[in-house]
Specification:
With 193 residues, the chain is mainly alpha-helical. It contains 7 helices and no strands.
């Protein structure tokens, strides 16, 4: 599993950078019309979903629970495509999409972090990202009457936080890969991770 994750570290990097870009856009223009916010969300969900599907498929032979990441990716792809095809959905439907996607993604990330605790260092970053995603989804379901600007800021804050955690995890996975690659042998006496 460690080999599959370290080989595909770039997927976490892409997911993180896209999430940060989406979050910054939501912060920069909080008064956007609902249509623009919906399109930004659709693009983010679609890119994140495609990245998750790529990670799942790339690790299917090495990782026992690869199907969980595949499910999260497919949900993201469907949420993104569905939002593109029905851009005139109401704010409450958009919030439900965002909330349920965040909760599902967060639960799978927490499960993955628990499974990875003996395989990689700092797996808590993935667990923390999952917990933040679940908390955000629950908050959106609990307070759907919040104004559009507040929703844009909440969505932006969540995306930036998840993006930073995902980029950090990607860089740690890349570092782990580089330490254990045949081109970068471990120093004599180094302990295996």
């Amino acid at each position: 599993m460690r080999d599959a994750l370290t080989r595909n570290w770039w997927v976490f990097l892409v997911r993180g950078l896209c999430a940060i870009a989406f979050g910054v856009a939501a912060f920069a223009w909080p008064g956007l019309t609902i249509l623009v916010l919906v399109m930004l969300y659709a693009a983010h969900a679609l890119i994140d979903g495609v990245a998750a599907v790529a990670l799942a498929i790339g690790s299917r032979h090495q990782q026992e629970g690869w199907w969980a990441m595949l499910i999260v990716g497919i949900i993201g792809v469907f949420a993104g495509i569905g939002t593109f095809f029905w851009p005139d959905i109401t704010v409450s439907v958009l919030l439900a999409f965002v909330a349920l996607w965040c909760i599902a993604r967060g639960v799978f990330e927490i499960i993955a972090a628990i499974r990875l605790r003996k395989i990689i260092e700092n797996e808590w970053l993935l667990g923390l990202a999952g917990a933040a995603s679940v908390a955000f989804g629950v908050a959106l379901l609990a307070w759907p009457q919040a104004g559009l600007v507040t929703i844009a800021w909440l969505i932006g804050a969540n995306a930036v936080a998840l993006g930073i955690l995902s980029v950090t995890l990607a860089l740690r996975l890349k570092s782990l890969r580089d330490r254990h690659s045949p081109h970068h042998p471990a120093p004599p006496g180094a302990m295996p991770v």
